[in-house]
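Objective 1b: paired records.
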Amino acid sequence: MPRARTVPDPSAAVLFDLPASSAGHTKAAPRRRARTAPRNPGRPHLDDYDDIERDSYLGTHHPAWLARPEFGGSRCIPLCISHRRLAGRRTLPRAVTHWLLDSGAYSELYLKGEWTVSTADYAAAVRRYHEEISLLEYASIQDWMCEPHILAKTRSTVYDHQARTVASYLNLMWRDDTLPWMPVLQGWTLDEYLRHVDMYAAMGIDLTAEPRVGLGSICRRQSTREAVRIVETLHDLGIRLHGFGFKVTGLRSAHHLLYSSDSLAWSFSARHQDPMPGCRHKACSNCPVYALTWRNRMLRSLPSWHQTSLHTPS
């Protein structure tokens, strides 16, 4: 029996932040982007998303890494960096490789209990990154995680966080639908994630038509049986998932079900190890040589049947 479609409560209308130019008239649903893969140097244009390489984005704290030559050229190592690390900078690096923008949602909600960055300010910042840094492949929306400790911070419910996450996607698309916004699925149980798929659908958003959909509230339990079941179920629906913060244990179980993932685990690992031979710093937690070595070792550690189409540079 098909699932009943969940329609957001009408009171959720207060979540929508239409641009001032929309006042006084009803605006149609955001225009959907053409279903084509990003056209970036080193990444040939493909008409079928199923042929796109599954990418492992290397997380970094440092905006300058976007311009470092060892991540570009034939290697084309994809990077992931947070809006919190880019916001407010007078000058921005020019990227040599494609990259993913993390909105900094976890830090925002964990530290402040709410989003303090407006839709307009975030959209304007992403427009600047797109133009000045270039090669921005995906920009995560201002989503709302559903981990129990985050709900305790916001004093809210899973349903409310899901409604706010859908509203964020729509608000950002209304602001600027030419930017590569990546919708995000949130929940805690499998049924809640499926409900969130239906909530997007009720607003006219078919997640199977999106080039990438972020999967939230999973990274801290990614190797559990329940988490793998959630990933498998959403994958079987035809949703091209991006796994936020996936570590080696989670990737070994679910990498073949993800179209991409990102991780800063290399930095945390390096904090508790001696520096690599030849490195003069006290720890390699900010070392690009260590980061590349960790990424290659991580990818090669995955079961061979999980590595279909993986980009694993030598």
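Objective 1b, second protein:
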Amino acid sequence: MQKILLAILLFSLSKSFGQTTQPKLKIAHLTDNFYIYTTYGNYENTKVPANGMYLVTSEGVILFDTPWDTTQFQPLLDSIQFKHHKTVNICIATHWHDDRTAGLEYYRQKGIKTYTTKLTDELSKKNNNKRAENIINKDTTFHVGNYSFETYYPGPGHTIDNIVIGFNKEKILYGGCLIKGVDAKNLGFLGDADTKAYYNTLKNVEKKYPAPKYIIVSHSDWDNVNSLKHSINLAKKLKEKN
């Protein structure tokens, strides 16, 4: 009887601690071989989630953006290896801020092919942020295994270099920090933004990808496809103020 009571107590304590301790890294299945990973950073004294994505292919794993939390560079690789028995071969960052680029140097040293656009590389160099080994000079379609995706520069918005990544067959739009979640009351940090161009840039994205099934945003829940329309409305209000 004492052993049973002890087991119940330990189980209750483990549940209690589990509810109060948030993991530093979360991985969730999106669809097919697409997964969303989430780490956390501090912004204005608040713990903020930062979503990235990875795709498992027959030729290895492709990582889109790097963890914001610098302690999670290796745990992410380890988790992918453990879960899928594959290594990360490619990493593409979508703009120069460190919630997207912080792990580029670390991953390059691991033998992973790292990519940013030329403009992102210039801004990373200017701001002493981590830089990729390979440069994307224009909108580019990648073919890896049986998957294809394209990098697309729609214009300045959250930053002057922000790109999105489109998976036309799967109808997935990886919007990064350019697109905000439906719970957002504003467009977030605008210190490096082009507030006048933001609206037109988002309209370019909408025109390029008119009917996505999934839209992945960086700092909010990614399970609502209305995030792009909501962001366009926020950007329109911002434009009207200027």
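The chain has a mean pLDDT of 91. The longest strand covers residues 46-57.
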